């Protein structure tokens, strides 16, 4: 990392990401889990965009952020539905409770699936992961091999009991998983960038994990408990072993990049002589990924094939799943050996650069030992997880005798070796370039950008009254269901008042209506003042002298200041607004008045909260005043009113000065 600058930024973002991943794993609350879920997207964006002076780095960070955050937002809807269905957001309580509304439950699970697919780079949302390889090597080794991309896998494992019995969802999970596995396998073969090969190999391995989750959630008609136990063990073993060998491959790629200043496989060869330790560690990891015996990946791949082989094969879809898994495994075998053959064998192509540090391969060595150790003592993983796993962990054995899964494995090795020997895989080069889903992403981005520009140009007109109209229309639409329910309200308004209240009400309504027709600003200010003073008289009638006094003071100050300022302004011009626009403003005004009036009537007859009047009966003991309202006014409201008046006076004097003095020529 000595070649990079901004170490504080890098390590802070890396620690933020690790903290976020711990939050996802440890959270027992759906909303808290979602918070950390999105925090990983933020940290990932910061890390991928570390070299933000490069356009590819920034674009890759933006793409990963958009796709994962959109998926996470849709997942949040599923979480909210789950919380509403079960009356809690506690994950353990939800898992222990019985299923409720089947339709809503299905909708919630579909939304959660969407979030998991985007985070774990499942087809067709996988396009963010290859572009994220612009991040520094430690980021790729941590985020994109062992942690972030497995967040979706982890979430589905955690919520797996909720998916039991939904055959359609299990089918979707298996279909997406096997498609991702196949696509990742074959596209990885076509890449010439070492990180590109590793990116698509990660996508392929994630597809394998997703396929296992789909199988595990199948109905017991298709999979018995013994096979389910084998499948769950295969899934856990694959997650751990993949983290070991894939992180090693990423770090080895970083070492090659530092020494050779390139990751292009067309320019690399003979590195086994130049980088012997990296050659050994990457060979161990690549063989493990290929599923070769004596490496941890062999056990994971063997149990994966065994799980699919042991399913009730009378169902044509399950038979197809096994065939596709074998084909995808052949692709895995091929790209794993490509990672060994192309950069490390053959003549030395370029001269390497000697690095000062001698410890850069230490991480690779440790993880390679783990990859080997998991093969020889695989049940250590079972001993660790047996008390916390959702299912029983099956005892792991390396040798199961001559059986169907073994012959399928031998078939995979044979076909892969033949294709490698004859270099048939080179015919795939360039095949997937014309079918790039990135084109759909980029095209969608351009279309959305054009739409947003058009909408903004139409909506943002720089007119304050227009923005107020938008705001009021939104309120009317948003509250329309509530307003319609209020129209059915059967409420009796018992209001008796002396004759002068009716007279003042008539004067206030007349003044408000006349404001629409007067041309003189001074007259408009006076009419507004009449309405305000009328409100203060209402307060006095309702035995609220504090409010009446406040209203009188504020109304007097504002009226005087407005009169002083508006004296220098010209008269109002005739309103030349088109008739349809006027009609719309009248409709909005009537709608708002109807909503507010009905709301006042409804609130008068509602008792939502218990009264706190009894608490105020003890006001003398609490505040030293026999009237709690007087105490509040004396202690707080007086200062509030005083400062309100001061603020209004300052603003009014400023406006008055500007209007009287006129524009100041700044050039003088």
From TrEMBL:
Residues 605-663 form the MrpA C-terminal/MbhE domain. Keywords: Antiport, Cell membrane, Ion transport, Membrane, Transmembrane, Transmembrane helix, Transport. Residues 507-570 form the MrpA C-terminal/MbhD domain. InterPro entries: CPA3_Na-H_Antiporter_A, MrpA_C/MbhD, MrpA_C/MbhE, ND/Mrp_TM. This is DUF4040 domain-containing protein. It comes from Macrococcus armenti. Residues 27-326 form the NADH:quinone oxidoreductase/Mrp antiporter transmembrane domain. Pfam families: MbhD, MbhE, Proton_antipo_M. It is found in: Cell membrane; Membrane. It comes from the Bacteria. The chain crosses the membrane at residues 7-25, 31-50, 62-86, 106-129, 141-163, 169-190, 197-218, 230-256, 277-296, 316-338, 359-381, 401-421, 467-487, 499-517, 524-542, 548-569, 581-601, 641-659. It is a multi-pass membrane protein. The keyword Cell membrane applies.
